[in-house]
Each structure stands twice: as structure tokens, then as C-alpha cells.
Amino acid sequence: MKKEKDKEYNKIDWMITLLPLGTIIVLCILFFFMPEQSNTVVSQIRFVLGDTFGTYYLVIGLGVFLISLFVAGSKYGRIVLGGQDEKPKYSFFAWGSMMFTAGLAADILFYSFSEWILYATDPHIAELGSIQDWASVYPVFHWSLIPWGFYLVLAVAFGFMLHVRKRDRQKYSEACRPILGKHTDGILGRLIDLLAVFALIAGTATTFSLATPLMASVINVLFGVELNRVAVTIAILIITCIVYTYSLLHGFKGISILAKACIYLFFGLLAFVLLFGGEARYIIETGFSALGRMVQNFFELATYTDPERTTSFPQNWTIFYWAYWMVWCVAAPFFIGSISRGRTVRQTILGGYIFGVGSTIISFIILGNYSLGLQVSGKADIIAIYEKSGDLYDVIISIIQTLPCAPFVFVVLLLAMVAFYATSFDSIALIASCYSYHKIKDGEMPHKVIELMWCVLLILLPIALVFSDSSMSNLQSVSIIAAFPIGAVIVLIVASFLKDARKYMEEKGINT
Q1: Residue 110 to residue 207: CA distance in whole angstroms
Q2: Taking the model in full, what pTM does it have?
């Protein structure tokens, strides 16, 4: 028995496990006891990276998207992530559900309702034209092709590493081995893995801290009470942690069941708003126009830097979003790669775009254009409500209250967000747990104690950020800072995959 414990103990990568733990504890203490000073420092660092090096984020975003199309359409697209005759383990629906919910699904609900409002009040929209023409374009752009391009290119790189090359180190550094060689096992590899873990924690902190206050507001409205939002938010974070911990400890089966439940709740909510909100025609027509305008102006939107800083729109929004998705690239693509066994590279990328991008766009078109329709038709002055309160959570509450059977919608929204968060953090905690091992075979599950530790660790910094009452700008800053070094690592992983895939095809004699 003792030998088994010692064997498990020696398998743990204590540096990758304990150093982030210590850092998170220090950051939590700083945010708890020095909230104003901490937020000021974070904002200053964000300004330097986002304003001075903003083009860096934009180039990586556009480049990765274009590479995803190249890989899917090239000979590399024929590579099976597994044995050549292996079939997918999950149905397209189950696979797509887990993939979609592993990403930023709960945040998608939050931003779908409200993101156009942020742009409608930005002077850049006035430069482009009318709110009707442009306020619904940027949400679709910021949440569709380029963001999912990050996920899907890395997913096939990690899937190739795990299922084809059968490597037993499930770490960011291992994906760089084709280029780094022996340096993967040295200081450079350790640095890459530490950066990945810190980025992972930053991403979870940002997403948990951004949307959970909405859940607290929903609870206050449902029960007709005025509880302290910070206290309720922290309670929700703890409950969500319990749910995703329970699910994770039941393995992929628990994650799959929870993911399917999320999808049913999600599409049920969208269908209700579309069919019974009274804005169906406006929603469909405005959404169709927004898609067309986004496609028509895609490269202009993707490369706009506002060099004269007339509005700083890309610095405030586009760069933040690319950074936000970069830090989530540490966990979500690993998870997508894991569940994509038996699918070809082409099926994984194109299927991801169909299910992931498709579901995201539908959400923004229906929920966003419902509230935009209220604004344009004069049924409700959503912009005035936001300008008066400056609180997006209260604005979303006001929007939902215009729907028939609003209490029912609140309940569905609350359940969907809890389920989405739980599913997202199932995948994150699972991948983080794998990071704690020197080696772990494909399909092997980490020890439940390690999984439990990461489940708790991932919730600490979000609680600290909520407690310190960080503004949206400061929450964005956490992601922008963490994404700066990760961007370079993402480029290295993509280049390594292309090199290794070419070598693999030569070994197998596949030339066309």
C-alpha cells in the first residue's frame, strides 16, 4: 500500500502543481487586502501590452484562423486522430455538446444579451454608421471565426500529439517537442508549462468573475430580495464548484451528460425568445444582415488598429477578446482534442466551426437582436438604462423582464449558466489535473485528490476578484496580460504540429 502511494507521489509534477498554488494564494491576499492598488497595477500593465503591442494579438488571431482553413483543406486534413480505421467515440451531437460547453458558453449567454449595448455607446460605431447597421456586427465577429480558430487548430495539434504520436506528457511543452527537441525537457519546457498554467488560471478567473454577478442579480429578482451581490456571487461560485467537482469525479460520462443538459437548456432558451419575444422578423433579418456585413468586412475588422487612437476601439475590445480566447486555449483545445479521437483533422476543424461557431452566432443573433429590436422600435430604451446605471447586469434583468413568462426565463437562464459553468470547468479542472503529472497516458484519469485540489484552486482567484469589486476593464486586463506570452507559445505549437504532421505523412507514404 505504501509503495503504491509513493509511486503516485513520484508521478506528480510538484513544481507545476505547487508554484501556481502559491502564486494564486499570494494574488488572492493582494486582491483581498489591497484591492485598489492591485487593480491599478493590473490596469497599467494591461495598457502597455494592449496599447503598445496590440498588433501582436491581431496578427496571431488572423494568422491562426487562416492556418485552420489551410490545414482543413490540405492533405493534413486526412489524418485520423487515432488509428487509421478508428471510428469516433462520440456521436456528432455528444461531441459537439462537450466541445461547445468546454469553451466560454456561460459568457456567451451573458454577452449575447448585452454586448451590442457596449458597442452602441462607443464612438467608433458612430464613425462607421448607425447602431442598426453595426452594433450587431461586432458581437458576431468577436465570438465566431477567429476565436474558434484558436481552439480548433490547437485541438487537432493536441489530438495528433495524444492519439497519433501517443505521447504521455499532456502538457503545452510536449506539443512543442517537434521544434524544441531536447529543450522540451529542460528549463524552456518548464517555463512554457508554467506560463500555460498561469494563463489557465487567469482565463478561469476572468470568465467566472464576469458573468456570475448576473446569476446573483437573477436570484435577487426571483426571490424579491436585495441580498448583497458580492456575497451571493461568492455563494454561487462555491455551489458551481461543488457541481463541477461532483461531475468531474464521475469522469467523461458525467461531463457528457451535463454537456447535453446544457445544450437542451441553451437552445430551449433561444427558441423561447425567438418564438415568443415578439421580435422574430427583426431578429432574423438583422442577424442575416449582420452576418453579411461581417463577412464582407472581415479582413478590415480583423486588421483595424486605430493608429490615431480616435476611439481606441480595437484596444478596448478586439484585442481583449483575442487575448481572452488565447488564455482559454490552454484547457479547451486539449479537451476538444481528447474527445476527438477517431475523427479526421478535417472533420474536427470543420465540425467545430459548424457546431461551435454556429451555436455561438445563433445565440448572439437571437438574444442580442431581441434587445436591439426593443431599442430600435422604441419599446424600451436599453441604452438609457445602461447609461443611467452603468451596470450591465441590471440592464440584462430589464431586458428579460420584457419577455412573457419572465420568471420562467430567469429560472432557465440561471440553470443554464450554472450548468454551462460546471461543464466548462469540468474540462478545465481535468486538463489542469493532467498538468500535475510528469507523465499520464492517453485515456488515463488523474487521481481524484489531484482533481479535487484543482477544482478548489480554480475557484480561489475568481472569488478574490469578485471580493475586490474589480471593474470589467480590470477583469479584461487579467486576460490580456496572461495572453501575451501564451500567444508566442501558440505560434510555436502550430508550427510544431505542421512539422510533425508532414513527417508523419512521409512515414506513412501519404503524399496526396
Answers
A1: 10
A2: 0.86
